[in-house]
Amino acid sequence: MKNILVILPLILPIISAVAISSSKIIKDKYLKLFVAAVVFLNFAFIVNANIFSDLEIIHVITVNEFLDIYFHIDQLGKLFSYMAGFLWILTSFYSFEYMKHEGKERRYYVFFILTFAMIMGISYSGNLFTLYIYYELLTLSTFPLVIHADSKEALQSGKKYIIYSFVGATFIIFGMMILFSISGNMNFIGGGIKGIGEYSDKTLLLISFLSMFLGFGVKAAMVPFHSWLPAAMVAPTPVSALLHAVAVVKSGIFALTRMTYYIYGPMLIKELNGDDYLIPLVIATIVMGSIIALHQDHLKKRLAYSTISQLGYIILGILMLNPNGLAGALMHMINHAFIKITLFFVVGSITYMTGKKYIHEINGLGKHMNKSFIAFFIASVSLVGIPPTNGFVSKWMLGLGAMEANQVLYIVILLFSAFLTAAYLFPVVIAGFFRRGDDEKEGDRKELDPPRLMMVPIIMLSVIIILLGLFPNLVINFIDVIIVDVF
Questions:
Q1: Residue 98 falls within a domain, yes or no?
Q2: pLDDT digit string (tens) for 413-444?
Q3: The domain containing residue 368 runs over which residues?
């Protein structure tokens, strides 16, 4: 029975996606109702599996010790699955309204739900090979979402996304083969695989670690493998929100965490000095992402480069290799998801209601989209790291990790990037509330906030951003269990 509980969140979205693909099975008039039922039911299955399936190991296909697909739910998997499941529900309802003007809704929902299954497979993977399989299936399920518009630009962006992803996959499989030849084991074990550090050829261990870190770093948009992400902004806004908040980039972060703390372990990486090779790239990711964001007039591209910078924060926390650093990284993984999906939902609402996509076009729009721009302001304040929002909590924890690592440079980088974050986000709020539009007449107060299906998720997310800032212990206590497991 417990085995079934683990499998249900993995197979329900696949079966549902197949059903959605046929208009004979799911009629057009029932399509959205069916999608809503699936995301709610799957979240219930996630909760059930996470509560009642502790320590269950389910082998699905075992050819040998390398080719072994099995699932195991631990605390890190629970954290990721809860985040994904909840945000999938909000994105579904937002999509019900937004996708009306994008068209091809049935195709969208097929791959939207199928991607949910891939994320659950990543969450519950018990070893590196299983994670790798679902990681690559995620590329295939999100590709049709990226090219949804079927325009020349969309197809070019999709091609870039696929090429970058497959380059990353090559790095990963190369590192996995070296690792398996050394250890004969790729199972996730808190603190790393026992005995792997006793291998005499440390150079091969270092090569395997760096190869996989760079490979998983592609989806985490780490410099120099970042440019696919801004290009993917040609996708519909709900897709952009999912790419940035949950589906792709956070899967990259999740995989980096798994590899670092459940395969090699922090002690071995310190011994190999593996972090020293990667930190310069991470600092470049943080700073470069912020600086380029400053120069973007296109709203979604400004947020895309912002994501690159913020992902750098999380990767930096992972590479601090201490409890506070990892806690800050995991906290920011969650907090950034809620913040960035809010920002994208608001930008999508602006485009949906007005057709405007550029910052220079939104002067005075905050007077007509009051609720939307207030939500954008709350999320912006949080991303900068100002209390009492959730962004402050995770950045404070990252700062503690930097002090624990005796790295003043990290704190300087975090503060500098926070200043740049304010510099590229607050002008959007200023333009909306304090500048007068070219065609605006005195006393003109036409209501342009989006319909309820889009507005309610935005409001809920804004409230959560504040609540997680005021009451962070709900997540911190959850993360503390992970920290105990790996240190």
A1: no
A2: 999 999 999 999 999 999 999 887 765 555 55
A3: 328-487
